[in-house]
Amino acid sequence: DAKTTQPPSMDCAEGRAANLPCNHSTISGNEYVYWYRQIHSQGPQYIIHGLKNNETNEMASLIITEDRKSSTLILPHATLRDTAVYYCLGGGGADGLTFGKGTHLIIQP
Amino acid sequence: DTGVSQNPRHKITKRGQNVTFRCDPISEHNRLYWYRQTLGQGPEFLTYFQNEAQLEKSRLLSDRFSAERPKGSFSTLEIQRTEQGDSAMYLCASSPKDWTYEQYFGPGTRLTVT
Fold first, then answer.
1. Is the pLDDT of residue B64 over 90?
2. Given the DSSP bridges, would you call strands A70-75 and A18-23 parallel, antiparallel or unpaired?
3. Closest residue to B48, CB basis, from A32, A49, A95
4. In this predicted model, what pLDDT tens digit does every residue of A76-96 receive, in sequence order?
5. Do A49 and B101 touch (CB under 8 A)?
6. Closest Cα in chain A to B10
7. Staple B89 to which of A56, A83, B94, B108, CB 3.0 to 4.6 Å?
């Protein structure tokens, strides 16, 4: 699995877009980029994944650079309930996920 | 779709005792995963099943740990002769697909070994 690097923490004002960066310079051509989040005292929650193209679902958008060495998760209108630890992962199979320490996103009222 | 459930949610045990946790995956999800999470860290992979077959075990899974998934439905994780270092949140996840990391996690079982 690719090694990923994320800032340990970020703040964002409620109602604004939250942009969470992730570096994955060692990702291989067939490895997907996945994002999960974990709200305090809950299990991780799948958000979105992508390979090359940008992706959007009801929760977020994922922007992957053309060289695939980095990506940005975008929460378009952050709410207080989006306060969580966000994990960026790289992988290509169906084996166990390798989580780092993630980014603790704090949404400020 | 009722989600992944885990029981018990909390377990306090004395060092040296055996404990068993249960995970019920989302119906018809053929992959089931176990993770362990300690405070301030991301979850660490322990093992996973495809149907009833245990396909991979992490080196974190010592001989005191055993997992089963009889009949390919629910799974149990047993820890024998618990140690204080086993105190953690034990998470279960299931996946509907064989080729992606789209996993759905349960709420976890918090184990405290005194």
1. yes
2. antiparallel
3. A95
4. 999 999 999 999 988 755 567
5. yes
6. A41
7. B108
